[in-house]
Hints:
Blueprint: H1 2-20, H2 24-31, H3 35-42, H4 51-60, H5 65-69, H6 72-75
Helix pairs in contact: 2-4
Amino acid sequence: MADNYSNIVVNRILSLCRSRGITIYQLGLMSGISHSTLDNIVNHKTFNPKMKTLHKIALAFGMTLAEFVDFDELNEYSFDD
């Protein structure tokens, strides 16, 4: 379950990076999150990033946290086993 959720979050981050023409390294600089932390998230070493981390990522994209997590794939995801 965590792996599917993690994939959704990672895909969201990568999609926003692509659409804005920025790299994960640049996202780290913009968000104040270390490159190693972002690398761990994107490479599935961290499956459940903290809310604070997601909030910083959202702000770097010029979004609120609510906007960052409001997309179809996550809205349709079920946390039920």
